[in-house]
Structures are given as C-alpha cells and as structure tokens.
Amino acid sequence: MGQDVRSPRGPRCIALVGPFQSGKTTLLEAILARTGAIARAGSVDAGTSVGDASAEARSHKMSVGLTAATTSFMGDSYTFIDCPGSVEFANDMRAALPAVDAAVVVCEADEKKLPQLQIILRELEQLKIPRFLFLNKIDRASQRIRETLAMLQPASRVPLVLRQIPIWNGDLIEGFVDLALERAFVYREHKASEVVDLEGGNLDRGKEARFSMLEKLADHDDALMEQLLEDIQPPRDAVFDDLARELREGLICPVLLGSAARENGVLRLMKALRHESPGVEATARRLGVRSDGKSDGKSAKEALGYVFKTVHLQHGGKLSLTRLLAGRLDDGAVLQSSSGESGKVSGILAVNGATDSKRAAAEAGDTVALGSHFARVLEVPAHTAGHIAYHFDKDGVVFDRNGVTVRAFTVDHGPAKPAVGYRVDYKGRSVLISGDTRMDENVIKYGTGVDLLLHEVLAVNPAVLQKAPKLVAIFNLHASPEQCGEVFAKAKPKLAAFTHIVLMGAPAFGVPFPAPTVQDMIDETRKTYQGPLEAGVDLMTFEIGNGVTVKRPM
C-alpha cells in the first residue's frame, strides 16, 4: 500500500464509449464547456454540438462516426474520442480503442441496455484498457445507488467500485459524497459543485460506503486489509494510490456519478482522469512499443504513430487521425507504414471536432490529424479495424475465400440507398441476413432453403399509426411481423429469427398506446408462418450443424 503512483504528465487520449443514447456526446460537450474549450455546451437536439457535426449525424441526431476533440485541464492536454454507441458504427470504436490511455464508459440505470454495456466492457477488458464507469442522468434516478450497482455489476468481470454516493433531498439527488476525499458536494447546474458540510445521515452513509470501497481495494492490498482489520484509518494519499494502481492494472472499475446535460460531476471525472489514468508510455507498452522506441523489432527513429481513422477529403488527399506513441513528428516529415510504403506528411492538425487547427509538430501522446496525398501510407491497420471493405455495384459474390462465400443483394429500404442483405455459405451451411428492408422478394430468392434466416422487424399497434401519422413513414421502411412471416413461409429456412427488433410506441407524439411486446410480435408472425422461430436478443448465438442450435446468454 502507498506505492508512489504519480500522475503521468503529457497529453492523454480518453475514449468515451457506452450504449446507444447513453449521453456520450452530451458528456463531451460538458467536458469541453467545463474545461473552457468552448464558451457553452452545445446540444445534439439543437444541432449545435461539437460532436455529431456531420450532416448525417445532425439529421439522425445520433453519432454515425467518432469525434475527436482536445481540451486542457490543470495544465495537461486531453483528447477525447467520442465513439458511436449504435452497433452499426461500432467499428469506429474498435479501431480507436487500442490507441487510448483509458476509457470512460457512459451508462445509465437502464436494465435494457445491460447487454450492450456488457459487450463494451468485455472488449475493454480484452484490450486491457483502464476504464471508469460514468453513471449518467443521475438527476433522473428512480432507485437507490446500491440497487443500480447490483444491476450493473454482471456486465463487468471486475468489481464496480463506487467512488461517490448521492445526497438525496426527498426523491431528488442534489449532490454527492466523494468517498476517497471524504467530502460532500452539492450540484450547481452548469457550474462547479459546492462543498458542504458532511454531517448527519450523509456522514453515516458516507462512512459505510467508504468502508465498502476500501474493502474492495484491500482484496489486492494486504497492508490495507491489515489496517481495516485493526480499525486503522488508511492515509488518504495511500487510498488514492491504490485507486490509481488497481485501475491501471485492470483490477477494478471505478464508478462516478453525474448528469452530463447539467454538467454535474464533470470536474470530479476530470480530476479522476488526471490523477489515476495512465499516460502514453503505458499505452505504448500495451501495444508492444518498447521504451527504446522500437516495435516488432523495427526502430522508430523519430516518431511512431498509430492511425485509427482515415477520412478522404472532398478535393483529394486524406486526413488520418493518429495517436503519436513515441518521438516527435514535424510537418513535412516522411513516414513509413508497417507495409513499407513511404509518404510525406502534408499538414498536422490539432483535432477539435469539425474545427481543426494547424500546428507545426506533434509530440509523444498527442492525438492529431495528419494530411497525406499518398493512398496507402496512412491506413488503419487491418488487424485493428477488424474489417476490410469490399466494394460492389451489383448483386452477387462479394467475398470468396477459404471456403467462405458471401453474396450481397439489394433490398428495398425506401429512399435509403444502397440497402443490401447478405447470404453467407460455408461447407454446405448457410445464413441469410436481411439488412434493413421492407418485405422484399430478393430476401426470399436468396434465402430459400437456408439454415438460418435473420430478418429485421418493426412491430407497432395499428392504432398508433392512425393517431401519429408521422410514424407511418418510418413503419413503411421496415417489415411488419406478418410480412416477415410471409417471407419465412416462402423461404422455408431451418430456423427463422428476428434481429434489429423495433417495438414501436408513441409517447413522444402524445399517443397513449404502449409498444407491442415480443410475444405480441410473435403472435402476429404466427398469422402467416408456423415454422421454427426465435426472437433474437443481445449475445444470443446460433450453432449450425445438421440443425440449428440456439444458445441464449446466461
């Protein structure tokens, strides 16, 4: 206990990840506003946010790609990578994660989002990335923090360690107790929290919660365990050292509270990142870069960078988002890719959302956008991105390798073009994925006789469409359960299953009709199809042999 775990100096890179619509972009706005990078926080709904600045993101009011923005806090530089939460754009997150020093997992007390939270935490665990859990929308909390923590814990393999407990005023949360600092704070909207006396019931609850936090830390610190058994209060600095060490070693996942929309809890989060998250040297070691600047036996004479996204510009050339892991990089320097190709840097930009600014050089730890007119020098490594793009302009085979054949075919998703489905064949087994589509004959054509047919579906109470005509346009872009049943009946797969399940209600339109249930959806499908049928859930797996075996998540 009490090891010297000083805060690393230099620029840091932090990922903001989490389930869809958990408030990641709103948190980025709050961070930029509270640290002075912008005058005031923008809004996703109003189209004024630094993140989600593309026309497509503005239109859909959701992230369709990552956003990088840099700010400073207490003399240090931080670049935050706001990663999309929607599974359709998860590859942007996966490409960026290896380059970051730590991740802030933004979540809320919503049991329905637990499967996606589990997937994200598993990926961070596998990559050995230190992570904080930011429990967002705390101002809307309807249950006690212990109940929320018990609900969230199954998503994480390591203990979720509560760093703060809320201060309640009736049914509302008005502040928090910092368990490591042993101080109480009251929230002030769009301002720094105010320190108040820690007394009464808050003092008692704080002592109990602090002891629980120390017990979890003591699981990996024998000296702390002895102090607790002897009823000796550990020094505060030693507690902070333990928190930092166990975070960096992946032994715990600290939990902080806040409301991004009100900018509550942001400064405490920033201080935790500053004091406890590792720096670029630890990230470089995790990626196999030795302290002498070498990687995979090759010398990094001046600079070594990690490219995690490349954007093609309208008038030619590219910008490649890059984390510099070692050395110094000057504008005009010649770079060599891992494949041996060389190219000259034609500009170094500091990343600030859609308003990047030019700079002369980048140092180790900086996250910058590098300009290059060379086609392949600054490409995202294939092993990092996880995917290789195969372009096609007509229905047919788009991939054929090692016995795996993938056929793409067009489907009808209204004005969203191109829209495609896929059929995958391997050693006599076959799977069809409909993609986003209305009822379409191509799904029947390519799906006839497959082992597994996965089809999207949108179920809605017909009365909703009568009362909320704005929803009709959305409904008409998808297949109803009854229409899916017709497709299944004609294609005759060994097993039909629903994916991309939308059970549409209409509270936002003032229509008092609840969304259909999964059973309602199944009942509608049975009007046209009586064969084997599954409603997919997150983490469900299918094993295809002589038949199709379904494994539900534990």
The fraction of residues assigned to DSSP E strands is 25-35%
Output the strand order for the largest sheet. 2-3-1-4-5-11-6
CATH architectural group of the largest domain: 3-Layer(aba) Sandwich
The number of domains is 3
The number of distinct β-strands equals 30
Average pLDDT, rounded to a whole number, is 86
Radius of gyration: 26 Å
Structural class: alpha/beta
Tell me about this structure.
This protein has 16 helices and 30 strands. The longest helix has 19 residues, at 200-218. Helix content is 26%, strand content 30%. The chain has a seven-stranded mixed sheet, with helices on both faces. It is globular and about 70 Å long. Strand 22 (396-401) and strand 23 form a beta hairpin. With 554 residues, it is of the alpha/beta class. Residues 296-301 and 373-388 have low confidence and may be disordered. Helix 12 runs parallel beside helix 15.
